[in-house]
Amino acid sequence: MKRNLGRLLLLIGLVVMLIGLGMAFKTFAGIYYDATSDPLGEHATSAEPEKDAAKAMLKWAIVGIAGAPIAAVGAFLAMKARIDRIKARNQARR
């Protein structure tokens, strides 16, 4: 039970971190995509698209960071379950 819960939390935390990282990178790449598709910036939606992109990247980075404690708790539970299983196996051998 503890091992499966640990694995589930680890997986959820990793997914949240990857989503945050992926969306932040997508926003970062969007700056350069916009620069190559419209070099003169004639159709820019705001006066400073880099500042808007920085805010969006920070938001997604915070989402990614929120997944780290979840993954850490999951890793701890999975390792604790493994240690308990090894201890129980050693106790059974005696």
User: Any idea what the radius of gyration is?
Assistant: 22 Å
Please summarize the sheet with the most strands. Answer: none
- Overall, the morphology is rod-shaped
Percent of residues in helices comes to over 70%
- Termini separation (Å)? 25 Å
Quote the average pLDDT.
86
| Strand and helix order | HH
User: What's the total helix number?
Assistant: 2
Strand residues, percent: under 5%
Low-confidence runs of at least 5 consecutive residues: none
Structural class: mainly alpha
Please report the total strand number as a whole number: 0
Give a quick summary of the entry.
The chain is mainly α and 94 residues long.
Can you give a write-up of this model?
By secondary structure, the chain is mainly α.
